[in-house]
């Protein structure tokens, strides 16, 4: 059994942990899902080795990033070129991450490549459409509001300022649920995009690469962030910062506990 | 028949304010002993390197940040700045500092850097907005760190933000 990787001496305080050095969509989302899970991950610094499905998602992202970069640079972005990149990436990265494949690495690798091939065939993005930005790190200063900066990495900004986030999923999502579950992340990106360009985004898209036996692609198209969504996000950010500062870390039991990596730590918490 | 050995040594160093200077020294000498090409080459290399290192410490005139913006005298060319000599950068100060640092540390050619910005974004370096500057910095890092892009796995720096660890 693979043991969790933990810091030998967990930070004594939130400040020492760096949990409030910056705000990100992932941190916000995890805090809203379960405050205790957030504590284990970002304050106690307990990092779990990635599970195979997570690594599949990471590898798929890496190939899509390469595909977008190549289109942006005007370099060849055909399937054969990307297959080579995928093979190199898998070989070099999988070995370093201590993943417990349970003898099924080939199955997961095939699954990742199949879903990528399907995406490249079915993508709604015209091959000659030049991206506005690929995998860009952006930051929004909230000093005036007394809050840490918001940072993020946007997967892709399509022509016309359309923000795209790629996701892998085990099953095809319902469009409304996809919007609801990903609102924090996409609104963070909208805030960051507006700060970085001075313009409103042209819209937002979630491209779900569905890892079913016959791979599917589900594209959810969203309007630009509304004023209500922006206010909602700011309220969540303020609540998050207050919660972390006040060390308000309590468990939030729910369906998500079924796939939580921190169940053992959670059961031992009191 | 006389055999000549030609040697030249060049060094380019970065300077503040998105500039750099370069000095090259060349010599041509006649080889007396054909069996000592290696020794003679080593002697010339040391000689030229000493000469260049001694002189290149004199940095001479280094423009201030606002240089060229007011009177246009000696202003960088439109190609070099992308905005006809206006020293205002659209991106953040932090991004500007990082771009200047990368250019200086890696002794990148300013014209080539500006050309890259035009190729990728259709504007000069100083006109890049924050989003574009972020992508441009990644390009500079990749070009200067690895020297290759095709087929290489993404750099670790990006992984910091990826997945559940952001």
TrEMBL record, chain A:
Residues 82-101 form the Apoptosis regulator Bcl-2 family BH4 domain. InterPro entries: Bcl2_BH4 (IPR003093), PDDEXK-like_dom_sf (IPR011604), PDDEXK_AddAB-type (IPR038726), Restrct_endonuc-II-like (IPR011335). Pfam families: PDDEXK_1 (PF12705). This is PD-(D/E)XK nuclease family protein. It comes from Sulfuriroseicoccus oceanibius.
TrEMBL record, chain B:
It comes from the Bacteria. This is Uncharacterized protein. It comes from Sulfuriroseicoccus oceanibius. The lineage of its organism: Bacteria, Pseudomonadati, Verrucomicrobiota, Verrucomicrobiia, Verrucomicrobiales.
